[in-house]
Design a protein that fits this description.
By secondary structure, the chain is mainly β. The protein is 6% helix and 31% strand. The strands form 3 sheets. A 4-stranded mixed sheet has the order 1-2-3-8. A 3-stranded antiparallel sheet has the order 4-5-6.
């Protein structure tokens, strides 16, 4: 982890280059290089790593395929509807696994971890994948329950 060798952040701006202001450290942590009273180096979820660039993808008729790389370098395909592609391609998506072993696509958006199916259906209280594949996020495969007003 190259970040551990970097000194404090005197400017208070996220060092990934996004230009957003970071919060102030409330508890020192040597392991992560956090110094009490000084700004964090990064906003949670941001990184200057080139790995965090845009995902590779392939467009096919009404479907877009986003390639998600696992830690062991294996690549899994995530399906989305073509109409959702422009919204989704702005973020770096990665694989997230739930306790039952099902893979989902997730990203850090505005300092919060967001699963792709919830990003595509924000008004739904719960989103289910009809075919049971957590990486199939096409409109026809997602069904949900709307939030009560």
């Amino acid at each position: 982890m190259e970040d551990k060798q970097v000194g404090p952040n005197p400017s208070g701006l996220c060092m990934c280059g996004c230009g957003r202001k970071t919060k102030t450290v409330t508890k020192s942590d040597r392991r992560h290089g956090h110094v009490l009273g000084r700004p964090f180096r990064f906003i949670h979820g941001d990184s200057r790593s080139p790995v965090k660039g845009p995902n590779k993808f392939k467009l096919c008729r009404g479907t877009a395929v986003i390639f998600l790389e696992r830690r062991d370098q294996a690549v899994l395909e995530c399906l989305i509807s073509r109409k959702d592609f422009d919204r989704v391609r702005r973020h770096h998506w990665y694989l997230n696994r739930n306790g039952k072993g099902t893979f989902y696509a997730a990203a850090w958006i505005d300092s919060a971890q967001v699963q792709l199916h919830k990003y595509l259906c924000p008004g739904w209280a719960q989103v289910n994948h009809e075919n049971g594949n957590g990486l199939d996020n096409r409109c026809e495969n997602l069904r949900g329950v709307r939030r009560a007003h």
